Amino acid sequence: MGHNINAPQRLFVKMVASITLLVVVVMMLLSFILYLNFEKIHSRQVSEANLNVLSQISYSANYMYENAKNFAVSLYVDEKNVPLMYSETENYDLVSSQIKYLNTLVEQSPFVHSVYVYNNKLDKYYSTWKSPINDAKSFFDQDIVNVVSEMKFSPETKFAPILRKIPVSLAGQTESNPSMDVISFILYDLPATDNKVQGAIIININVDYLNQMIHSLSKKQISTISDIVILNQQGQIVTTTSPDYRLIDWTSQPYTNIRQDQSGYLLQKIHDEKFMLSYATSDILNWRFISIVPYKLIVKDINTMKRITFLVCAILLAVGLSLAFILSRYLYAPVEVLFGKMKSLEKVNRETVYSKKMDVLRNLLSNRENDIAYLQRMFSSYHIPLEPGKSHQLFILSIDRFNEFTRNYNNGDQKSLKFAIGNAASEIASRKFTNVFVDTEVDSIVILFEVGSDTYEYNRIQQYAIIRDIQQWTADNLKLSLSAAISYVALDLSDISRSYSEAQTILKYRMFFGWGCILTPDSLAHINADYFEPPVKLEVKLEEHLLYGRLEEAKEVLGEIHSYIGEYAYDTAMSYLFSFAYTLFKKNNELRPNGSSRKLDIDYYSFTKELGSLETMDQIFIKFTELFAMICEVNNQSKNSRKTVIINSIVKIMESNYTDKSLSHEGIANTLNLSRDYIGKLFRESYEMSIADYINEIRLNKAKELLEQDSRTVSDIMEAIGWENKNYFYKMFKLKFGVTTSEYRLHKVAEAAEKVDD
């Protein structure tokens, strides 16, 4: 009897021992597999970390390029530079004044090393670096002379970055470094006749600026011992953190992937040592950004971990076998416990099937190379009620105010709510379409459905009705708002990922249409595809309102700006908003010359990070309005009597001494015993023009009065107002009053005659 009782116990012990041994063997096998793959996984992790830093470096390089372009365009369209580029005669005072002004702009720019202005008619170069006025033949930077003389117009080369060297010393001088690496950008004007450059603005950026940027961003790398190399489109080194890599031919066969792929990594021997090369590409500059890490540093800790893993597994194997032998003799589980475990396993299996089903559907949406036969097998295995060979369509349901949603609910509640939305949406959609819902594990749910034989218009009406019902159900039962985007039709499921990608792009335009919208490809028909021109006039008006603390007027102008950018593509609008925010922060986070701080309480990076997470223009409007309120408050606090006194003194000096031909910005600064840059900045902030322009304004207005009062010649009037250059006087008079001096005088004589007749 006792033998019969112990028989099932021995059987159970054998079963437990066998299972334990099997588990230990499987664990050892898995450990061995991990041992084989861990090195590859860790390499990928290191590469991804380095790619993240390279992406930031690429973004900063693109940002530098866009700012250089904007800087050049602002100089190109500045009418004060027109005489420098196109004048046939040279006015030294005017040239000297403008070069000083350009010097001021260069000093204020963190990345611009120098600016050249080229005049074909005079064959001259005006420079903020070294000698300011130069003939082309004697210009110290002959490299740029050759570039400009050989330049031919093409859309691909206009404002393309040019990697070159410029001398750091003039002829007859010696310095330790005879040249420096720069990146030059040329904005030029070509006539339709001889196709030669007539005038150009040349911006030089010191490569050291890129080195500083790389040093700053490289601190974030996981691999602390890493070098960075930047290559241009031709495979030339723009800059590198180690001179050793300048000796490598980056256009050779081993680096083919770097020249062709957008991003990735490869293992390559350099100087007989193995390295990991992670690389990324700039879409704008078409530069390659390469991170180089010695491979022995990557695998150093891995090898130690491998040895420890084998040791631990061996110990676990011995301990597991011992415990299984000892405990198996005393373990016996009742049948009820066995059934309980079976139920638990069944639940886990259901959850696993659901998880795998979602994985198949998510892979379907993200993979552009889906095989119909494979999809049919997977759909059959997981009971997905779609036929891969038929036409399909989808719509994305995105949870509005998603940041608020993640703050209010924990991860478990979020998953439950999204499951509820997907389940209800699928059931509502099943009234018309065979469908399945996909939890994308982000802020949206996708309803994937088969398209019937009905007309496009009828299907679209049905889709709108279904989405409205889903939105209403979600609002009533879950107190959540949904926005939706409807995709194009895919002829079969092998192309559904393209439809999903296009629907994601369409959904971005929720920013313009607001929460609860339903977007289709037709919703984007109004988008302006022309080149985006920033609303400069509105920006100037807005800056004036902010400078004088007029918050309500600034908000009205912001509304006009939002209306303007709402006609352009989402990426264009967001890019402009980030650039617009940067301009505001730059102009309002400077220190006043008198020492009083006018810095804002928030920084640009925090502001733009939050700006990028906003979903609608209304939210963006509120965010900018809050920033405007802070700027107005700071500007109102920074106003002081000293600034007013200085400005009034400058105006008084100009109005009292305008007849003096030597009256200049420099002379006024010396009279007041203040820095020329300081008074120039104060005056421009108050009058929105330079001191030299204001002097010209006074003289031109006085000339107009003299033309009305007596019959003196223009030469006598110019002498009376302190003006020297006759041609420039005629040009500026017509530019300001719209007529020549002779026409103005005749007009006044005619007016006087009419009054006598009356």
TrEMBL record:
UniProt keyword terms in alphabetical order: DNA-binding, Membrane, Transcription, Transcription regulation, Transmembrane, Transmembrane helix
Matching PANTHER family: ARAC-FAMILY TRANSCRIPTIONAL REGULATOR, HTH-TYPE TRANSCRIPTIONAL REGULATOR EXSA
InterPro entries xrefs: CdaR_GGDEF, Homeodomain-like_sf, HTH_AraC
A Pfam family matched in the record: GGDEF_2
Organism: Paenibacillus plantarum
Database matches in PROSITE patterns: HTH_ARAC_FAMILY_2
Stretches assigned to the HTH araC/xylS-type domain: 648-747
Transmembrane segments: 12-36, 308-332
N-terminal signal peptide: none
Protein name: Helix-turn-helix domain-containing protein
